[in-house]
Design goal:
This protein has 197 residues and is an alpha/beta fold. Helices cover 51% and strands 9% of the residues. Strands 2-1-3-4 form a four-stranded parallel sheet, sandwiched between helices. β3, α6 and β4 form a beta-alpha-beta unit. α1 crosses α2 and α8 packs across α9. The longest helix has 18 residues. The chain is globular and about 50 Å long. 38% of the residues are buried. The mean pLDDT is 89.
Length: 197
């Protein structure tokens, strides 16, 4: 299902991304998750800031941890620039959180290829997102969460874990983040909340 995105917004998205209006139209109307444009419109103007994140587990944790911003999962790192362009065109205050994937290649079967792909994809995203609008984690959200003792303990109580098959469970992450204490949360994540107030 496509969302209604005015042509002036499509033109602004095309300019932001440096792409054709046809490609921008496709990204704004069909590549982003259903309800994305509606959620950003709701936050635009005098509403809360929007934090754009890669996936559902990121959104689950950060919604529970941060007070205030609307946290929206966009469906992958490659869609963060398009999501930022739409948020910008709709007049929302926004910021993007990008996994730097510094060590993700170590967990892959083909390490050399994966390392190169991670570097290129992160560089491509950061090139399109201006530095004041983007926070790049050194590795990924799970690496940050591993530094949050009360979250890790709560996640284990809920039968979850940070790595391995089936580890990324948004419901377990949300429950653990809701139970965890904020006073031992990673500073990088807490800084997002201050930035978006």
């Amino acid at each position: 299902m496509t969302e209604d995105v005015p042509e002036d917004v499509v033109a602004q998205v095309a300019a932001f991304l440096g792409t054709s209006t046809a490609r921008a139209r496709g990204l704004a109307r069909t590549a982003l998750p259903p309800g994305f444009v509606r959620a950003v419109r709701g936050a635009a103007g005098h509403g809360p800031a929007v934090l754009l994140v890669e996936g559902a587990t990121d959104a689950a944790v950060l919604t529970a941890l941060l007070d205030g911003p609307v946290v929206l999962a966009v469906g992958g790192k490659h869609l963060l620039p398009a999501a930022g362009a739409v948020a910008e065109a709709l007049g929302a205050r926004w910021h993007a959180l990008v996994d730097g994937d510094a060590d993700g290649w170590r967990r892959a079967a083909n390490r050399t290829r994966t390392r190169a792909v991670h570097r290129r994809s992160t560089a491509a995203v950061v090139r399109l997102l201006p530095p004041p609008r983007c926070t790049v984690l050194p590795d990924d959200l799970e690496a940050e969460l591993a530094r949050w003792p009360s979250f890790v303990a709560a996640l284990h109580r809920h039968g979850g874990r940070l790595s391995g098959p089936g580890a990324k469970d948004p419901a377990r992450y949300a429950a653990a983040a809701a139970e965890a204490r904020a006073d031992d949360a990673p500073e990088r994540l807490l800084a997002l909340g201050r930035l978006l107030r």
